[in-house]
Amino acid sequence: MEEEDDQKVSDLIKELVLRLLSQNLTPDSRPIDPNSSDFRNSLRYAVRILSSRMTPSIAPDAAAIAESIKRRLATQGKSSEALTFAELFTKFASKSGPGSVNNKWAVLYLLKIIAEDRKASNAQLDSSLLLPNLALSDTELDNSSRVLRRLGTKEKGWSNGVLWVSKDPGNRLEIAFREFANLIKEENEVCEEVLVRDVLYACQGIDGKYVKFDKNADGYVLPDSVKVPRATRVMVRKLCELGWLFRKVKGYITESMDRFPAEDVGTVGQAFCAALQDELSEYYKLLAVLEGQSMNSIPLVLEKACSENYLSLRRLSVWFAEPTVKMRLMAVLVDKCRVLRGGAMAGAIHLHAQHGDPLVHDFMRRLLKRVCSPLFEMVRSWVLEGELEDIFAEYFIVGQPVKVESLWRDGYRLHAGMLPSFISQSLAQRILRTGKSINFLRVCCEDRGWADAATEAATAAGMTTRRGGLGYGETDSLETLVDEAAKRIDKHLLEVIYKQYKFKEHCLAIKRYLLLGQGDFVQYLMDIVGPELSEPANTISTFKLAGLLETAIRSSNAQYDDRDILDRLRVKMMPHETGDIGWDVFSLEYDARVPLDTVFTESVMAMYLIIFNFLWKLRRVEHALIGAWKIMKPNCITSHSFTKLQRAVKFQLLSTLRRCQVLWDGMNHFVTNLQYYIMFEVLEVSWSDFSSEMEVAKDLDDLLAAHEKYLHSIVEKSLLGESSQTLCKSLFVLFDLILRFRSHTDRLYEGICELQAR
Amino acid sequence: MDPDAARTARESLDLTFHMSNLLDTGLDRHTLSVLIALCDLGLNPEALAALVKELRREPHASSLPATSTAPSRLS
């Protein structure tokens, strides 16, 4: 078979040469004789040419070649011909089976080169430049001739003779080119197109034929066994940096996607991966275009009319400049964000976006828009609906399950770690408060009106209550939305608190009952309850006291008060030890239910209790003194009693009585002034301050703060605070003294009355 | 060759001839058929194209001197 093929080949070659030479003939010359020596020489030459190049320099891909031909036709302005060519190629390529051409690519390539050569020769180029390796020795040409230097070609055993036929010194340029071309061929074991293709593979993370990933050097390198000049090696290494960066980014994406099912990566992380993948798809597009171009062979020496784009290592480095910048950015971000999640990740990426280069800025903006969209969505749903769906714990507001009473104070708080840096602290506080208010309204107040307020807020801020509509870079619109929502929700909350739950009325009631503002009621209460409370504490029954409380209420102006308020007023007996009498353990308490117990918490009520005890003691002392006066005031009994007694005794008695009077006066003066001070300077003033603050309060936090201030000022000013501990002690000592005085005077005057009776 | 194969061959040749005209290669049908046959037999198309180009140059340049200084050998 081999010989048959060979015979066929030589026959065909002969035929070809004959035909080609015949084409060149002018009409009047004789036809070519196949046996002439001219013909034979031509034949020999033909065979030489055919033997010298055994393997083509490009990959046998018919479709790619057809593409490049079509493109060339199109760029030459012959677009209709390009379409026709495409049709023909499709028909040609579809033919298969016996009788069809097997190496279709070879035919196409052949046509392409012949066309190019023809064009080139028509453009009056010196076509000898295109055949660096072959030479025609021609000593009889009178135009420029070429120098031939033949390399030892491999299998056919040509001699390695060097032949210098130099006629024209001006040919130096061609000589130089030829030498250069040969030098390149010597130095490079691998030709440049293969390297370019390997680099393109490396930039997608795949090992090429020669360029492989080296774990020790941590990069894509040409192994030392491949013989290329150092410049090429360095350039390949530089271009493969892009491959290394790509590997890192792709590795992160794959890793994250593997972790998705484990719910380890949050929504922000997922968004980040999605954005990275989008950017990578752009990158893939570029690589596809470059790969298409890499099919064209690189001319070794620059031609003046280069018809197609080829791709050399240097051109590749120009193409890769921009993608390298982007890929480097992505790799840096990937490193940063490997351990972060949620708002912290968004904050870290935001820091990188503070960059002056417009390319980087745009890129980061696009990325951040995707990454922050889950966060903004969370903010929107929190602010407009009070919903907190945070499965991956990425949000900067953390909720915890608490009892209903402490929902406002402890139910939600800010998590500073997850707060991204483009949301300021004050904005975060407002966001927290708005969502808290909605939840508070929903849970504690059982109110539904907040939904209307929310929709109003949304329309006022120009967006709907559905998803979407907010993105990164629109922090202003976020602020507007939050502000509008906060304004309306706060207003609604305060309305509910004031109107539905009558906060003001309850505060007033506490003042009147717990802080003893309702004078007549207190008086009656003391009158009735007084004798009871003188008994030891463990004999007193709370029910009896409660009944007495009711009586007191009914007999004073307090009976006209709201039934709801009066229901909350109760008697409370504090835990007592032996030896205590009722006075020490008696107190009143006010039952503030949800939602007002957000304001009137346990500790607040304990404060009220302390103040009440103090005031109650003061009142008791006053009551005692008034009782003493009733006995001590000048009356018939005392003035007429001493006539029967002896002089000395009378004098003593009278002086004692006088001293009692003086003492009483002093005590009375003291107590009155103290009472006045407490009632007017402390209680009323603080109350008016608190009222005016209640008027201007904008939200529940303001209200809470105002109430705390009110209580605090009362405590401090009535000398119950820490700074006046000693003063307080002396006061209580004085009160005790006064009470003892009372009991003594009681006994004294009893004695006198007895004396009178005898 | 059976008629089907012959028809396929003829059609392929037609298509190729049409393509080569589009590309303005200046090859006539017969030369093209020889070239296709050579390609099919496995010869390097680059070499064939080079050959075509060389042999198509100026008529006077294609006539070689009788004595060639380079040794050659027929394959």
Word description of this protein:
The complex is a heterodimer of chains A (758) and B (75). By secondary structure, chain A is mainly alpha-helical. Chain A is 64% helix and 3% strand. Chain A has 28 helices and 8 strands. Chain A starts with a helix and ends with a helix. With 75 residues, chain B is mostly helical. Chain B has one domain (3-55). Classes of the chains: A mainly alpha (758), B mainly alpha (75). Chains A and B meet through helix 1, helix 2, helix 4 and helix 5 of A and helix 1, helix 2, helix 3 and helix 4 of B.
Briefly summarize what is shown:
The complex is a heterodimer of chains A (758) and B (75). Chain A is mainly alpha-helical and 758 residues long.
Question: Could you outline the blueprint of secondary structure elements for this entry?
Answer:
The complex is a heterodimer of chains A (758) and B (75).
Chain A lengths: L1 H23 L12 H16 L9 H14 L3 H16 L9 H19 L25 E2 L12 E2 L8 H16 L4 H11 L9 E3 L4 E3 L8 H10 L1 H19 L7 H27 L19 H7 L1 H17 L4 H11 L5 H28 L11 E3 L7 H4 L1 E3 L10 H19 L6 H12 L13 H26 L2 H11 L5 H15 L8 H14 L7 H6 E5 L8 H4 E5 L11 H31 L3 H5 L6 H50 L3 H18 L7 H33 L1
Antiparallel strand pairs in A: 1-2, 3-4, 5-6, 7-8
Helix pairs in contact in A: 1-2, 3-4, 3-5, 8-11, 9-10, 9-12, 10-14, 13-14, 14-16, 14-18, 16-18, 17-18, 20-21, 24-26, 24-27, 24-28, 26-27
Chain B lengths: L2 H20 L6 H12 L4 H11 L3 H4 L13
